[in-house]
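Marked as duplicate of an earlier ticket. Keeping the data here for the record.
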Amino acid sequence: MTLTQLEIFSLVAELRGFTLAAHRLGISQSAVSHAMKSLEQELGVELLRRHQSQVELSDIGEQLLLRARAMLGLANTLRQEAADARGMKSGTLRIGSFGPTSSIKLLPKILQRYRAEHPGIEVHVDEGPDRQVLLWLEERRIDIGFVVLPEERFDTFALVEDQMVALLPAQHPLATRNEVSLQELCVDPFVLTEAGSSELVSRLFNAARLQPNIRYRCSQLLSTLDTVSRGDAITVVAQSSLPQALNAHYVTKPLSPAVKRQVGLAVLDQRQSSPATLAFIALATKMFQR
């Protein structure tokens, strides 16, 4: 068993195909097939079930994939630590990001400084809903992720705090109020944004034993803003996720009682994090915890 075989296995599992994995790695499809066949023969189990258009993991393949990614992560950490000892700053950093708060307002500023200080580190950024970032962390598909805190499953580092606000059409009856309650937001059609802090919004209503009248679900905040601007629905969003430019078609109102939201970074285990990951944490906390 080699690290190359495990890397190919991990990528085939992620992309669900031999051709895509071969293209990403810059090798032939036959080389990918040979590596997988050799690995399965050595382990004595079927890791992948082949279909015409794609492949899927077997049950034991799902289990061993987590082990493979853990081994690849440790190998990457070892290489980076050895490179640092030689004075060569090199390696890879995989980041998970969600919503406008992290993808637009936090990550670009951090990356600008990070790339200047660590030009040899190759950075990969994957974007998805907040719950997707948590799953990527658990599956070791990323080294570090932006998350809504608290998250007890991971080692976390707080960065910024804002508040949740009601987002209402400009002509909505509640638009003249200074603040609104969650109960008052349960009557009109509600749009839930799958990206960003959708999990937090759902928990807020569940904790209050309330049920919003969800009529729309949008994958991106821009679609949510458009839905509210047209007067079709109301919603709850994080203040810092909204565009800085004012929009005459919607208004924001603080919640009563106020609801704070904290965004930070999370890693599966800080003790096993690579030098590139630890450097990113140190820089981000230095920039924002002030």
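See parent ticket for discussion. The longest helix spans residues 59-85.
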